[in-house]
Design goal:
single chain, about 300 residues, alpha/beta, eight-stranded mixed beta sheet, two-stranded antiparallel sheet, 8 helices, about 15% strand, disordered N terminus, disordered C terminus
């Protein structure tokens, strides 16, 4: 697909692919676009299906993939699929809550060509845990952020502002002090559990206007969509029945793109940004709020107490 870089109506060819490995997650965030949770399934895509898709991705023009979910590391084939993607010459980003990363997985994530992304909500552990609905999630995610940075793994963080006085500015400042250089802040999007009022149907107004522009997503049931947030719109096809490259040239894909009004500025969505996740997480945060607090290497701050990273 030939693209006019100045046109708001002509999406770029897909080079970035989000792979939603699972709907399972240890958290039950109130705003989750995917309605993920501990009792959700891995979907109908088998590990072999994912492996075949990853093998075919370069020929379809894909240069970078993102493993996302749910929590992608909870998928039983995650480590194998990560290594398979690297062996196929793909750049990889893993969007994880970083709640539980065992030592062997840290080794896999430390390979060249792998980046991490995570969500962070507050410098106040109680507030963070309330939003994730999991006690101790703040401490564990923060400890893993420190571990990742210690290992030299590129990492970015997204902060979703749910309002009600949430300490988003302080969360950003805390991430800065930890050494995270790429931080994005955005409002909660009305998709999944973020829909208000509950039970209503999302609209394209919740999307950034660049869906499908250089990117696409594959659900854990094999359905291809423009991005993970556009899941309420029809699928463009199933990767188990139709090759990925054929889906991107089919009328169903073009019809799907036409459902989203293309908006300016061209930097409104991530393909023109420095990360790899659509909003929420891609609105540039305000200048950092710097506080005179120093957090020693490989320590975790929880409720004002410094605890050694375990």
């Amino acid at each position: 697909m030939v693209t006019d870089p100045l046109s708001p109506l002509t999406p770029a060819s897909v080079e970035f692919l989000e792979l939603e490995l699972t709907n399972r997650c240890q958290l039950v965030c109130a705003h989750c676009y995917a309605r993920s949770g501990p009792t959700e399934s891995h979907g109908t895509m088998s590990t072999a299906d994912w492996q075949q898709l990853i093998s075919s991705a370069p020929a379809a023009g894909i240069r970078k993939i993102q493993f996302i979910g749910g929590e992608p590391t909870m998928h039983h084939g995650f480590a194998h699929l990560l290594n398979h993607a690297i062996s196929n010459g793909l750049q990889v980003e893993v969007f994880s809550n970083l709640l539980h990363i065992p030592p062997p997985l840290w080794q896999a994530l430390s390979q060249p060509g792998v980046e991490l992304a995570t969500s962070y909500y507050s410098d106040d552990p109680a507030e963070h845990d309330r939003l994730t609905r999991r006690a101790g999630s703040h401490a564990r995610t923060q400890a893993a952020i420190i571990e990742a940075l210690d290992r030299g793994i590129p990492l970015r963080a997204g902060i979703i502002d749910l309002g009600d006085g949430q300490r988003t500015e302080q969360a950003r400042a805390e991430l800065e002090r930890l050494g995270v250089a790429r931080i994005r802040v955005d409002r909660v999007r009305g998709v999944g559990r973020g829909v208000v009022p509950a039970g209503t149907t999302p609209t394209v107004a919740e999307l950034c206007g660049r869906c499908g522009d250089g990117r696409a997503a594959v659900s854990c049931d094999g359905e291809v969509r423009m991005c993970v947030l556009s899941r309420f719109l029809p699928s463009a096809g199933d990767v188990r029945r139709t090759p990925l490259a054929d889906i991107f040239t089919d009328a169903a894909w073009r019809n799907l793109l036409a459902q989203v009004p293309r908006r300016r500025p061209v930097t409104a969505c991530n393909p023109d940004s420095d990360g790899n996740d659509c909003s929420p997480a891609e609105t540039v945060a305000p200048p950092p709020l710097l506080l005179p607090v120093t957090i020693p290497r490989r320590t975790v701050v929880t409720a004002g107490t410094v605890v050694a990273d375990s």
